[in-house]
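During the reporting period, we have paired protein sequences with backbone structure tokens. One record among many follows, to show the layout:
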Amino acid sequence: MSRIIDFAHDDATRLDVSGGKGASLAKSARELPVPPGIIVTAEAYDEFLVPLRKQITQIVRESSTEDASAAIQELVMTTDFDPGWIGDIEAALERHGLSDHAVAVRSSGTMEDLPGAAFAGQHDTFLGERGAESIALAVRRCYASLWNAHAMKYRDRLGLDHLQASMAVVVQRMVEVGAHEAAGVAFSIDPVRGDLTTVLVNAAFGLGETVVGGEAEVDEYLLSRDGAEEREVRVAHKPQALIVVADGGTEEVAVDAALADRAAIEQADRAAVAQLAVRAEEHFGFPQDIEWAITGGELFLLQSRPVTRVAARWTRDESAERYPNPVTPLTWDLVEAGFHQSLNHSFQLMGLPPFGDKWFAMRDSFIYGNQTAVELYGGRFPVAMFRDADAIREALPEIARRYAWVQELPVQWMRDLDTYLLGIGRLTHEPLNDKDVAELWDHVREISDLGTDYFLPNIAISLTQSTLYKGLLTLLQMGLPADQAQGVFDQLLAQTDTKTGQVNDELWELSRTIRATPGLLEWLDAVPSAEGRVDDLRAEFPGFMRDLDGFLARHGHRELDFDAYHPTWVEAPHIVVNQLRVLAHREEEAQASPNQLRAQQAEVERRVLDAVPDDMRYFLQEVIRLARAYTALDDLEHYQTTRLTLPMRRALRALGARLVEHGALESRDDVYFLHVEGVETAVRDGSAEALAALRPLAERQKAVYVAATRSDPDWVYGQSDTAEVPTDADLQGTAGSPGQTEAEVYVVHSPDDFPHFPAGAILVARTTNPAWTALFYQAAGVITESGGALSHGAVTARELGIPAVMSVRDAMKRLENGQRVRLDGTQGTVVLV
């Protein structure tokens, strides 16, 4: 490859060739008004560095960061380029019409877009350069800036190898903005206020570096995304402007006093900048932060990068389904780090930019989601590609290239599953009795690390399932009336084999054993719950218990609650027995066999595919296949994730007991009310005083947790809803499972309410999980306060053919046991009758 390429070169959009800025500009130049330029590739830097690598390695090893930075920068600046280098630059400038223009020479590091790494501002830019020799010197200075002390410290903090970092350099024609003209930045959303419907534009007179650098006051304009509506205009006092000077470089000049307090750009230009920011978002498929400039009445895009930090708005919208109840501090600390690692690993896999903030956070023992981030990253569906059949045909090669990983991920995940399961087996059987406190804590961290490694791609699985569902429904809506498309969609996905379905089949088989065992059902019916009676059950009906023990050996890791503080099925077998009692009372209705249902589904699929043009048939068939595959994979992923709970509870029981022995806790389960940082500090210190300091910490956190179990969390954190909840108004949620029904409701708060659920009632709950499945067989319908079409409650309801409405705020407060409602799972409504 040539050491110098232009923006149109086939490889110019590659991060390893052009660095972050260069790749972004090359992509932008495909469709957006980007000034022409060339890229000195990262390969050119690597060639330049070859004779210096050994010396640099020695300097880094033997010097402080500051001393190493100074020494390496001097080395870079005093090492000659190879002969012909100046001539190569001169020829490239001539070839691309840049010889007679001032140019910007911008560092473009190859690590700029790594997950969790934001190198913006770490490296140098030089403006107003003219002539090959001046530009070559600026390129060398960009190379040297890779070794800025602050850039080296940043790489050290991220654990990145200095010699793996490389540097491309962008040489781009300067948009020579005059002192009476303007430049600045714009965001296709408003990251300051977390408003995804508003474009934020900043502007100043002269070059935009004053805006980017935050060195002076700038105008701020808030506009609608189409630029037609101005929501707020703030004009700053701008007495100075940065401009390019004729002999190279830039200088600051005074702005005409009559202009200083006027808007830098008029309304029409403000609208044009807003529209350009949104065009950049549509081009890249993600909200963008752009640099722009206007000169001679022409608007240019100078740079575009993804917006990855936004003002957080903490709500229960995203978290109420996953984390319906309070969570203990230790469980959350161990989970949170792994979750956020998975988040950015999954985003990288999916071609999305890394997220630089928290997605979930604990507030008063409840987990809240950053709803702005959810809206920012969620639903990144390629709308333009699915606009119509012609658009899909045109985009098929791009879809195949961009989404090849969707086909590969299930195979890779299954391959890596063996490593995880072998690790679970090893850690579950590791002897703990002879371990001291520090060794037990290391064992806990080892279990956590295993889970973190396993979970890395799992968020991508859930997000991809959602995207595939949206894609399939969009395709069906192109060829079917709206009222038919959803029904066909449901039929195509109804018979997906899932792990939960397999577990449910085994529960049914055990319920048949109950009916077939003389006296067993009557024995179970003697009291509402089997709690405290399992040992008696084992003595009275050993044959049934052998079958139940086998079931629990296979599936006993299934959770009653996300929090490891709570026991699983194998530790609370009465919960399973209560479910089985419910199923044993249910008459199994005559229904089609699984093979008959699959045949019906195959016939629906055949009819759909027969109606599709030949050149689109394989694509639709593949979307159907992948939607089913990811439905099963998402369910299996959750099933296998919960295996981690058993070795974790075993380890924390042992650690808690050992801390009780040291007087650091009152009871072993109080270990859950500590934070990771506190345990780490005390355990590494090891002194009696350090361990004893854990006890008051646990007591305080436990009090907070207990108080949370007796309260309802704010839906938006910090915004208490003090208004009285209306009980006489109809409710609106989201469609979960189609159909209508009218019946009395029954509110279920926890598995303790399972034995009291009346057959034929509508189940009302905050959320559900697989432990609730038996209730669905008794229920006429389902209402939950959280979740959507992919939630456990919605999926299970669709499998059983009962209507469900999800995300009904305050449903558990607004509905009372015995109250009669009409539920419409197609429209997502609940009407009081």
About this structure: The longest strand covers residues 298-306.
